Amino acid sequence: MKNFLLILILFFSISCANKKKNNKDELEKNKTLKASLILGERIDGPANIRDTINGKLLFELNDLTLIETTEIKNNWLEVGVFIKPTIEQAENFYILPNTKIYSKNKLIGITKDTVNFLFGAEDYAFINGFSHKNNIKSNTIPENELKSIIKKNEFSLSDFNPFIENFGFEISELGKLEDIEQYYISQSILVDISPRDRITLLFRDKMLIGFIHSRKISLEKFKTYDLVRGHKLTITSDLKDYEIKKIIESKIQVYNSID
C-alpha cells in the first residue's frame, strides 16, 4: 500500500511538472509574439505545408514564421513565404529534400520533398503550398482582430492604434476621400500582385465610420455593400445615403483603374 501511494505521488508530481512546463512554453511563445510586430499571419507550428489539400508533404515551417495567405476555405488555405536561396538553389529554381530553409538569415523550416519556387531572383525566392487553418495563429489574422475590436464597441482611432501598428497599416493616398483618413494593408501576393488593399479602415474625426475588406468579415449589426473585384464596404456609423454612395463610387473607380 505504501509503495502504491509513493508511485501515485510520483505520477502526480511528474504530471504537474509537465503541465507547468507546457504552460511556460506557451507563455514564452506569446511573449515573443507580443514583443514584435505581428505584420500578418504567423505559423502555429511547426506546421506541415503540402502540395494540395491533404496532399504530399513539401516542407515544414517553424512556429511564428511570417507568411502570405489566401482566404480560408473548407478549413484549408494556401500559404507562402519569402526565403533566402543559395546560389545553387536560385540557379535551379528549386530546393532539394531535407534542406534547411532560411529567411532574412533566420532558420524558418526544412524541406521534406523537392520544393519548386513560385518566383524568385538571385537574392530571394517565394515558395508555397497548402496548410490547415489550425496551423495559423488565429490572433495574427487581421480580419479576426478587426472583428474583435468592433464587437467591443471600440471605434476611436486610439482604440485602433495598436491594431494599426501591429499589422503594419499605412496611410492610403489612393482614392482620397474628403475629411476621411484611410489606413490600409496590402492584399496578399498569393491573391493579387497588383497594389490593391486587403483591408482599409475609414476614419472621420478620429472615429471609425467603416472599412473596406476583400475577405469575409461577418458583423450582423452593420450593413455591407458590394464593390468590385471581391471588395466590400461595411459601414459602422450613421452615414447618409449620399455619403455612402460617394465612398462606393470612389472605390469602384480606383479598383477599376488598377491592372
The gist of it:
The protein is an alpha+beta fold. The protein has helices at residues 2-35, 87-92, 142-151, 157-166, 241-257; strands spanning 47-50, 57-61, 68-69, 76-83, 94-95, 100-103, 106-111, 115-116, 119-120, 125-132, 170-171, 181-186, 197-204, 207-213, 223-226, 232-235. The chain is elongated, with a radius of gyration of 23 Å.
Largest sheet at a glance?
6 strands, antiparallel
The domain tally reads 2
Q: Give the number of helices.
A: 5
Uncertain regions spanning at least 5 consecutive residues: 1-17, 19-24, 26-33
Structural class: alpha+beta
State which percent range the strand residues make up: 25-35%
Please estimate the helix content: 25-40%
Q: What is the general shape?
A: elongated
Distance between the termini: 79 Å
Average pLDDT metric: 89
Oligomer: single chain
Strand and helix order: HEEEEHEEEEEEHHEEEEEEH
E-strand count: 16
How are the strands of the biggest sheet laid out side by side? 11-12-13-14-16-15
The radius of gyration is: 23 Å
Organism: Polaribacter reichenbachii
Protein name: Lipoprotein
What does this entry look like structurally?
It comes from Polaribacter reichenbachii. This is Lipoprotein. The structure is a single chain. The protein is an alpha+beta fold and 259 residues long. It has 2 domains: 47-138, no CATH class; 141-257, no CATH class. Helices cover 30% and strands 29% of the residues. It contains 5 helices and 16 strands. A 6-stranded antiparallel beta sheet has the order 11-12-13-14-16-15, with no helix packed on it. A 4-stranded antiparallel beta sheet has the order 1-2-7-6, with no helix packed on it. A hairpin with a 6-residue loop joins strand 3 and strand 4 (76-83). The longest helix is centred in the N-terminal third of the chain and has 34 residues, at 2-35.
